[in-house]
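Human: I would love a firmer grasp of how sequence relates to backbone shape in proteins. Could you go through the record with me and say what the backbone is doing? Here is the record:
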Amino acid sequence: MGSEALPPAGRFFASDNTAGAHPAVLEAIARANRGHAPAYGDDPLTARAVERFREHLGPDVAVFFVFGGTAANVLGLQAVLASHEAVICADLAHINVDECGAPEKFIGCKLLPLPAPDGKLTPEGVRSRLRGIGVPHHVQPRVVSVTQATEYGTVYRPDELRTLAEVAHGNGLLLHMDGARLANAAASLGLPLRALTGEVGVDLLSFGGTKNGLLGAEAVVFFDRERARAFPFIRKQGMQLASKMRFLAAQLDALLADDLWLRNARCANAMARRLAERVAGIPEIRLTQPVEANAVFAVVPPAVVRRLQAEYHFYLWDERRSEVRWMTSFDTTEADVDAFADAIRRAVEAERR
């Protein structure tokens, strides 16, 4: 993704990270700010937030809160990987492209990326990386990592995840899910969170909140508590143990209470579909992926991209193809989408002349 100069302030379509925090989340933080509470997660609010996760994901999960998604991915994987082991992932996976080598640096492991034109791993692709098992000259595959929704905005169905879990488990590997946009995937499919995680064989989950209306809080979830035994020490050594944990917990508690996570994700997804529908009839614009979550990918003429980026902030995803990524958020409105779609049409028409 490019690092273009920002246009004048306004609604951005670059990332769901550019949105603010949901008002209910800010209110929850303000409530958590009353009085004193035990530090480092020994407070009642953290205990309540953990129980929220168990309501959604299963009564036996072990849950730990961290500040950011990269930390959730890397520290979670560190708990189940040795440095001579490897993670099989899509070539566009966040751990492979957007984490600045953090898995390699902090775990010492190797990543085994696979081509994934739609963002999804396939059983055949995973099997192709299962080589050199037991041979000390070769890195040993240990984890299959999927992103839900994927970096291309596509969504794994339960049967796809179940099949990948079967391939992984049948070969002695674990299944990790980078769930930065798990809420969007679940909303897209109309399924509860557990139907895309523990019920289909996910062993380790990085649960995302920041992209879905939080100020900054994520969770690492182990579906087998035994695998979490060392994680309290890994989290502390990884500089992710919050002293005032109640403020992270307040955010996640608010997100999971009363289905705020679902309402936010539904809104973002609906706005992405609206944007795709508004631009689908423009001959110069070619959508490159099905719009299944809150991302729209399209090939746009370079001159049109330059005109648009003078008004709106968004990323050029693949410069060679002139493919852009447009992201919607929990607070994106129909008026925002319609104004952006009108700007796209104006930019295209200007280049036609």
